[in-house]
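Sanity check

After download, print the first record. It should look like this:
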Amino acid sequence: IGLAGYAVFLSRSPAELLVIFLVVPIGSGLPLWVMTSTVYAVEKGMLRIRSGPFAYTIPLDEIESVEKTRNLLSSPALSLDRLLIKYRGGKKIMVSPEDKEGFRRAIGK
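Expected structure tokens:
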């Protein structure tokens, strides 16, 4: 991104400058935001997941199963050593807490 952005900056056309000042920061900023803000919290009967601009709230009593996975699909998980949470309505989400057994105890699974 850095070299491409520099090359576009040298050309200085308005459309290309738009790429530099809008697309490049978003393209590099969003992953950084996600990596520094991913949090899993269990409170008041709810599993709360926050990852960058994304937020999920899952009632603990709706969680049907938790199983290990290494699925590559996008999810609020910072590692491939993940837990797949299946909950009411056929919904699924993957997380990657550092202490997987502690996380399972916290959510009651």
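If your output differs, re-run the checksum step. Summary of this record's structure: Helices lie at 2-11, 14-37, 100-107.
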